[in-house]
Specification:
The chain contains one helix and five strands. By secondary structure, the protein is mainly beta.
């Protein structure tokens, strides 16, 4: 991971840039980033409407 990514608390995840589903809201999209915020990992997903939404990483699964 480069210094720029570490500055913004980005973390690697095997599903980055893959299609995922937030199991809480059932919204789907592409996992764009995972950040550490207040000690928790938060997923940022770009939905089909091209708007980004966040979800707890524990609720994110690969879409089928």
């Amino acid at each position: 991971m480069d210094a720029h990514a570490m500055t913004f608390n980005h973390v690697d995840h095997p599903l980055l840039k893959e299609r995922v589903v937030d199991t809480h809201s059932l919204r789907e999209g592409v996992l764009e980033a995972v950040l550490v915020e207040d000690g928790k990992r938060v997923a940022y997903i770009r939905g089909d409407d091209h708007l980004e939404f966040d979800a707890p990483i524990e609720a994110v699964r690969a879409a089928q």
